[in-house]
Hints:
- The complex is a heterodimer.
- By secondary structure, chain A is mostly helical.
- Chain A has a domain at about 70-225 and about 260-275: MetI-like fold, CATH 1.10.3720.
- Chain A has 13 helices and no strands.
- In chain A, helix 2 (about 20-30) packs antiparallel against helix 13 (about 245-275) and helix 12 crosses helix 13 (about 245-275).
- Chain A is globular and about 70 Å long.
- Chain B has a domain at about 70-245: Orthogonal Bundle (MetI-like fold), CATH 1.10.3720.10.
- Chain B has helices spanning about 5-40, 55-60, 65-95, 100-110, 110-115, 120-130, 135-145, 150-155, 155-180, 185-195, 200-210, 210-225, 230-235, 250-260, 265-290.
- In chain B, helix 1 (about 5-40) packs across helix 15, helix 3 packs across helix 9 (about 155-180) and helix 12 (about 210-225) runs antiparallel to helix 15 (about 265-290).
- The longest helix of chain B is centred in the first third of the chain and has 34 residues, at about 5-40.
- Chain B starts with a helix and ends in a 13-residue tail after the last helix.
- At the A-B interface, helix 1, helix 2, helix 4, helix 5 and helix 6 of A face helix 1, helix 3, helix 4, helix 5 and helix 6 of B.
Amino acid sequence: xxxxxxxxxxxxxxxxxxxxxxxxxxxxxxxxxxxxxxxxxxxxxxxxxxxxxxxxxxxxxxxxxxxxxxxxxxxxxxxxxxxxxxxxxxxxxxxxxxxxxxxxxxxxxxxxxxxxxxxxxxxxxxxxxxxxxxxxxxxxxxxxxxxxxxxxxxxxxxxxxxxxxxxxxxxxxxxxxxxxxxxxxxxxxxxxxxxxxxxxxxxxxxxxxxxxxxxxxxxxxxxxxxxxxxxxxxxxxxxxxxxxxxxxxxxxxxxxxxxxxxxxxxxxxxxxxxxxxx
Amino acid sequence: xxxxxxxxxxxxxxxxxxxxxxxxxxxxxxxxxxxxxxxxxxxxxxxxxxxxxxxxxxxxxxxxxxxxxxxxxxxxxxxxxxxxxxxxxxxxxxxxxxxxxxxxxxxxxxxxxxxxxxxxxxxxxxxxxxxxxxxxxxxxxxxxxxxxxxxxxxxxxxxxxxxxxxxxxxxxxxxxxxxxxxxxxxxxxxxxxxxxxxxxxxxxxxxxxxxxxxxxxxxxxxxxxxxxxxxxxxxxxxxxxxxxxxxxxxxxxxxxxxxxxxxxxxxxxxxxxxxxxxxxxxxxxxxxxxxxxxxxxxxxxxx
Lengths: 278, 303
């Protein structure tokens, strides 16, 4: 019994360490003095933060890559746009789906469920054609629109769960006190589901911040690059030459992700569970 | 003028639902239909609609590559699924038996690979398992006096199972944990009083009681794995060698967008995608029936 308990806790510690170890290694690499091995400690890999120019001492290399700050702004715009649109659209739709009975409700919910199950990668070809036809190819706006439609079904399901959890009595009390349905929605319901809005917001921000496939497929000019494109491009071209720089750039890329993960982990968990339940 | 109750309800439903319905229709339903149409054409870089009937399908079924991509897809889905399910079970069994704080921590920390940008996770895995001498594992081996091991060449499938499995296991771990926690403690205590070992309790009580959750996860995960390729694209990209890890959806991607946009064989690529869409639709409908998902859609009683 005693030995079993020790074994169990040893397994638990290994299990807890497994997903973190690679991230810790990334930190060591980013502060490494050697360009491709983990060795010593230096801040020189982060020098690009001063001007945003990569390989500033190497004119040939530095011309190949866009300014890091431009890339950062692009990534932020994609994440923010995705977050705002998903929260706005899904908070309205989920309320109506949770509270009203109307024609096509089941069909709509079913569609959300099916769409969420199948990865959006199957739509890339058609979406490419549509974006090209509308002139949105190679623009951040095009990517934001596609991204938010892909994240929307999950947002609606999660928020529907939050609205379902608010008792009718609360809303009826507001109506009895003279509020209109719209007034009750804005003043009573929205504040009550704010943890849900927060959860969906964090999730869609991270989802936009980390997006790769849509950006890689729909964006060509490097002025519209996001972090994911820059890092993937650097890693495949410079990975053998200056891996520590790629790691340093990845750390900068990860700062908001880790901040949100550590502070908002319990909210993100709600989205994952919501995503499974429906 | 005051609108009638019924009319004002209609307006409200319409206004609040319109953005979501329009987005879904425009960016998800319409492209799905468009994909099927494109698969019946020879659409390429010139963007001209040249109808060719089922010509692309005939071409695909006679293609010598077909057997490779179907086999790769089967291995990829089965292997990743097995990894996700088993790792999820381990996470769930361990995290529900240890001290509660530690258990919650384990489940939370497994979300980390999922929230990391895919590019960063892929580059980390590529660096750790790099076949080159400066790869992390190999640098340790060389330091210890050994010879570097070409990990991604020798073990490309296990490598991909690990890369993808660390993403998927968080989900299965959370689902299975909450299922295990809902098992009444009496059953387990009673079994223990009767002298059952931990192994027997897991096998005879816990696993049978969460079998529907496992089935649901397997079903759901199959659906998402069948058309997922992001981490393969970011790591081995179909290699090493000839189509060894080129799954169907990745092949479609390469046909349409591969090699610096010179491919652009949209019509033919859409053929593969359409087949996957049909498989996905059939599976969804089957799951709908099996798991009685309709009960998730109970209409609201009041309004």
